[in-house]
Structure formats: structure tokens, C-alpha cells
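JOB MANIFEST
job_type = single_chain_structure
chain_count = 1
residues = 484
[input]
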Amino acid sequence: MNRSIRALYLTLAVGFAVLVVMLGYWQVVAAGELDERADNPYRLEQQRLVDRGRIISADKIILAESVMYREKGKKYYRRYYPQGSLAAQVVGYATPQQGATGLEQQYNRYLAGSYGTGAILDRLRQETKDGADIRLTLDTRVQKTAEALLSGRRGAVVAIEPKTGKVLALASSPAFDLNEVSSDFASIRKQDGAPLLNRSTGGLYPPGSTFKVVTATAALDNGKWSASSTFDDKGVYVVDGKPIYNSGKAKYGLHNLTDALTFSINTTFAQIGDQLGGRKLGREMNRFGFARPTEIDLPSGEVAVSGRYRAGKILPNDQRDEDSARIAIGQENLQVTPLQMAMVAGAVANGGRMMRPYLMRRAITRDGVVVKQQRPEEIDSVASAYVASEVGRMMQSVVSEGTGTEAGLSGLSVAGKTGTAETGDPERNQAWFIGYAPAEDPQVAVAVVIEDTSGTGGTEAAPVAGEVMRTALSIDPVPGEPTT
């Protein structure tokens, strides 16, 4: 009898222990996964009870807000985007069915009111929650200009304040209407041109000659060359038996380094890269942020890493056996984001100091309490103030008399660099421009890429950059409360 009771006791004890373990697993370990499942009815109900905070631009335009509706006498909320497709990939969407992207995902904790002890009590009681508003650095006037100039073309535009890192615009084309995500997400996914991709932060492109700004910085920082160092171009530079030519196989003869950047002379920069070697050029790339994640406040999966790729993997910047001559002119499997190249221009504009780009200025509750705030933050020093000023002066020459004249602004000095990268089709290019203005007191730095075009960086990207900078430099603060 005692043996039977003991066996029964052990069986019950083991069963109870298994039950405790399983409950613990589902309540703790798997709770997050279950909560995120789109078919979780509790999650769907919970999200509909949240009056998410608004996302508001720097010029006080409401980009996202919650709209109340009633169902069976109960009050619920759904997300509404008053500006439709404006900055769609940056703002992102938040729906119970499709989840969240962009700023909606990055700052979900604040937008959904999931911070502080009150949020925990609301969740336990399953009551409605009020989220905090997110105030941005992004200015819709600059954003609209960028998107209008990209309209009908695939590409991206980035505009930042070089002294602070504030992001003024992140435009990606094609885009999509955020209000259609809930009702017609399948159609959006099928559209040509991958509109869900944020090309400004997640698109990877060969940089072409815009990378020569990095090479020029490395050359001057090395001390072996100056802006007036002379070269004798024969039209070709051979590395390991393979020739590097200038565009159109042009020959420039005697010229200096400023001329080389102004007219984008491949052979000169290939020679510099070859003499610098992978280690020294790689160190400069490290300073500029290549081969490491860009520190911007967007979900990490939406921000690609710029650098050299092999078999889909990012490579270190300072390997000895790399073809530094071709890296120096923006080739050798280099793939970069427009954001990264805007940061290159911004670092030169800011006296060699690279600032962390950011979109959110502050999160503020309905009663005016600031619960999170961001301030300018320096990431790295890419060069001395002197070297940066010399590179900037060379970039001014690109716009005043070289390949970037289309980016010029009447009455203002602009510094920049064009790039025309190959696509595999000799008739089609990836057209680039990076730069900043005014050259003497930089207020805006930009990067523009136009995909699959028959034109060049000078004819396609430079005019877009000029108009975006013109808009950024002409805007004034907007008084009053946020509006739709």
C-alpha cells in the first residue's frame, strides 16, 4: 500500500513539476513570441486599445496619428497617416496584422505608451493607453522637394545638418501610401521597384567617384600629398597587369590633386590608393564609418552596412591584399548607402568631425512631459580641421568648374563631388552627387543617387542636390501647433 501511495505521489509530483515548467516557458520564454504573432487575438485586441502618440515633423506637420472608432459600443483606435506616402519608409507603419516598421517600430515603446508603471497597470487591466508624441528633425518641406525631384525615378536623397547630425530628409523612390498597408499590403509588396525598401538607408550602391572624397582625405592626412601636389597623367594606370582608365579614356597630362578631384581623374586617385595601400586607406575608411553599422535611430534591419562585400559578407577595411588602387576610385566591390555618403560629406563640412545622424528630437507626453530626448553626438574624427578644409576647397572646385556645376546655387558657394558608377549595362549608370552648402558655413549636407539612368552624376544627381540644398537653406521655423 505504501509503495502504491509513494508511486502515485511521485507521479503527481513529476506531473506538477512539468506543468510548472511548461507554464513558465509559455509565460516567460515564449511570451514575447506569442505576443508578436499576428493571429494572437489578445494582441490584436490590445493594440486596438492603444491611442498611439503622433509622429510630428520639425515643421509641425502630423505624419501619423490615431483615429478613434467604436465597435459594439467599445472605443478602439486605428492608425492614420495624413500625408499618405510622404516619408513612408521613414515613418513606417503600425498595424496589428503587418506589425511595425520605421519610426513606428523604433519608438513603439513611447508611441504605444509602454513606459512607466502606469503602462504596466493598463496592460494588466486591458485598458486604453495614451502614447507619447514623437517630434522629429525631419522637415517636410525638404522631404517634399526631394521626393518630387525623384518622382518617376528609382533612387534616394539624404539631407542632414553637418554640425548636429539632424536628419532633414530621407527620401526613397518609389514609395507607397501608408494608409493602404492595412487593406492592400499584398499589392504593395508586388509593386515594381520594391517600394517597401528604404533606399536612403538600406539601399546599397557602388559609390563611383564620390568615394574619391575619402581617398583625398586619406592622401592629405597621410602628409605625402597636398592639394597642389602634381601628377603626370598618361591616360592609364596599370595595377597587377590590369589597366585603369579615365572616363572616356581621356588624358590630362600635368595637373595637381585639386584638378584630379575637380575633373575626377581615375588614374591619379588609383596611383594614390596604390601607394597608400590597404592599411592606410582602410584606416581612413574606418574613421568614416565604413564596415560598421550606421548609428541612426531606425530599426537595424532597415539600415545596411557600407563597405566592401565578398559573397554577400562585409569585409574589414584594412586588409593588405586588397586592390587599394581600385578601392580608391570607388570600385573593388564597394557598396554604400546614400546615408553613409551624406555622412562623408557632412564630416568634411564639419571640420573633420562626424556626427551621429538622428531623426527623433524628443518624445513628449500629452501633458507636455519630455520622456526621451536626443542631442548632437560626435561619432568620430575623420581628419584634422585643416585637412577637412583643404578637401572642402577641392570639392568647391568640382562645383565651380568641374563635373558638378549643375549643383551650383546662385549667390552661394557649394562643395561637392559627382560619381557615375557602372551597372553592368554600358548604357546605364548609377548617378551620384554628394556635397554641402554654403561652403564657408555649412548648414546642409546631401547625398543623391539616381538608379539605372543613361545620364551621369553631373547631369542627373547634381541638379537634384542643388534644389534640395536650396530648399533646406531657405526654410524658416513654423509657428503654432502641429497640423495635418
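[summary]
Confidence is low (pLDDT under 50) at residues 34-40, 119-126.
The domain at 140-177+189-363+378-474 is CATH 3.40.710.10 (Beta-lactamase).
exit_status = 0
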